[in-house]
């Protein structure tokens, strides 16, 4: 019974259990109109399973942030981080098995979709050594997996839908069990909803939603009317993790509350009509002085991306007459130091090239170098050299020949090619497939092997593998080869 949680009770008052271990393999779909108790059900599920399995909540309304104080969930404010930071936070969430709530209430719907897609994709792309079991709860899932195009851009809709499809269709092998909740089944993409094997259907009134709910529960069309009569907090459950036959469940109580919950009715004030009219038509108060505004302002945490953009957009002041101008050697030293600093950071090869170039520009300015002299293409090639560890100063004869040959290598293959050449010069074994994959900007070992095959077809390298599986990579044009390993 340790893997089972108490959802509530049936009509006879007997407890209804949900098998968490079975849920990890079969996923769950929750449906109910606004006010049906859908969020209450999710909160009950989260509270009861908090000590059993890792939990990751995609929260578009910020309703589940209260879990942080009571159960230790880490609340991530989606509005405060850039795409790169969201990706890094998701990767560390999987690595350290942290239970988190991604609060998206500070974002518009399109940015909510983009942020959720980035976070879910990073969870999905985590290395296999971090594939620990986790429940991924997505509230208002019809926003992130819409059945039809809406007012958001096609790019945001496609990326969000793809992330949700991966979660529900392919997430099980990676330890991710999707728990999706929606107000409207008709608005939820069918290929996402169809992957759930467990269902909890709450009150709904539209015929199209009742028919789909009845079909999922294996009920006849004429029985669908009872879904309309369900009380708040009552659901019909079915599935291998709940019950093999439809069962009515009254969801039990919860310990935490949503921030938007209003307890009962709050009567309005009862002043006279003249007093209320006077308050409504009162003259606006004079705005506070500038000094008062500065003292009263409570700025929130600034994201690194917005801070970098703000710095980059500032107009640089005219240099003072006594300002010391940097020599070419000093400027090159700063460029090399910044590149090496960026190349040493974890996950740098997985970031978009445009973000890296912007980050590079800002770091150079912060060190007093206003013009680094590199365009986007030049930066990408220099960054590949830094990642591969071939920023020589000055280069030796073999190093110079390697860099000269590298000029004919496409930029996306440059970092792994230089790493192989650097190993051959140093007499070290060729980097393994995992290392080459990271240098190539992927976590797929298969893609790294195909990249090596492409280099061989391009006559840049020759790969030899003995019967023991040891590999040596030669660069014929340089008469170099790595030792067998």
TrEMBL record:
InterPro entries xrefs: ATPase_Atu1862_pred (IPR014588), HerA-like (IPR008571), HerA_central (IPR002789), P-loop_NTPase (IPR027417)
Domain named Helicase HerA central: residues: 14-72
SUPFAM superfamilies: P-loop containing nucleoside triphosphate hydrolases
Ranges for region Disordered: 299-319
Pfam family for this entry, one: DUF87
Polar residues biased stretches: 303-316
Protein name: DUF87 domain-containing protein
Transmembrane segments: none
């Amino acid at each position: 019974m340790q893997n089972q949680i108490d959802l509530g009770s049936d009509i006879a008052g007997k407890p209804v259990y949900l098998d968490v271990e079975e849920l990890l393999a079969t996923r769950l779909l929750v449906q109910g109109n606004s006010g049906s108790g859908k969020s209450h059900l999710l909160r009950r599920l989260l509270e009861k399973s908090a000590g059993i399995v890792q939990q990751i909540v995609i929260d578009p309304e910020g309703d589940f942030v209260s879990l942080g104080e009571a159960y230790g969930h880490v609340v991530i404010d989606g509005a405060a981080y850039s795409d790169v930071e969201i990706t890094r936070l998701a990767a560390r969430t999987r690595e350290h098995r942290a239970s988190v709530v991604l609060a998206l209430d500070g974002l518009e719907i399109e940015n909510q979709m983009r942020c959720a897609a980035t976070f879910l994709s990073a969870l999905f792309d985590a290395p296999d050594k971090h594939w620990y079991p986790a429940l991924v709860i997505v509230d208002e899932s019809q926003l992130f997996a819409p059945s039809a195009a809406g007012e958001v851009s096609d790019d945001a809709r496609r990326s969000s839908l793809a992330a949700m499809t991966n979660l529900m269709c392919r997430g099980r092998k990676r330890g991710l069990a999707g728990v999706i909740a929606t107000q409207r089944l008709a608005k939820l993409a069918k290929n996402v909803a169809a992957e759930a094997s467990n269902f909890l259907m709450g009150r709904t009134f539209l015929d199209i939603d009742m028919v789909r709910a009845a079909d999922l529960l294996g009920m006849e069309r004429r029985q669908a009317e009872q879904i309309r009569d369900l009380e708040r907090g009552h659901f019909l459950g079915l599935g291998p993790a709940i019950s093999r036959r439809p069962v009515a469940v009254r969801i039990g109580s919860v310990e935490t509350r949503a921030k938007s919950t209003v307890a009962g009715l709050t009567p309005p004030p009862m002043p006279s009509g003249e007093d209320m009219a006077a308050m409504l038509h009162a003259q606006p108060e004079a705005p506070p002085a500038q000094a008062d505004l500065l003292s009263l302002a409570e700025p929130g945490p600034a994201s690194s991306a917005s801070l970098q953009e703000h710095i980059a957009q500032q107009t640089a002041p005219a240099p003072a007459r006594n300002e010391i101008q940097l020599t070419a050697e000093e400027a090159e030293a700063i460029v090399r130091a910044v590149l090496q600093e960026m190349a040493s950071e974890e996950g740098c090869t997985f970031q978009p090239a445009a973000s890296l170039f912007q980050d590079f520009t800002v770091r150079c300015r912060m060190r007093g170098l206003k013009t680094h002299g590199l365009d986007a293409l030049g930066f990408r090639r220099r960054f590949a050299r830094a990642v591969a560890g071939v920023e020589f100063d000055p280069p030796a004869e073999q190093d110079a020949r390697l860099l000269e040959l590298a000029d004919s290598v496409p930029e996306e293959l440059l970092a792994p090619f230089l790493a192989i050449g650097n190993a051959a010069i140093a007499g070290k074994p060729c980097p393994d497939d995992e290392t080459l994959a990271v240098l190539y900007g992927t976590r797929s070992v298969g893609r790294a092997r195909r990249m090596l095959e492409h280099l061989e077809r391009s006559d840049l390298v020759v790969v030899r593998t003995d019967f023991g599986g040891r590999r040596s990579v030669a660069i014929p044009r340089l008469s170099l080869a790595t030792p067998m390993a």
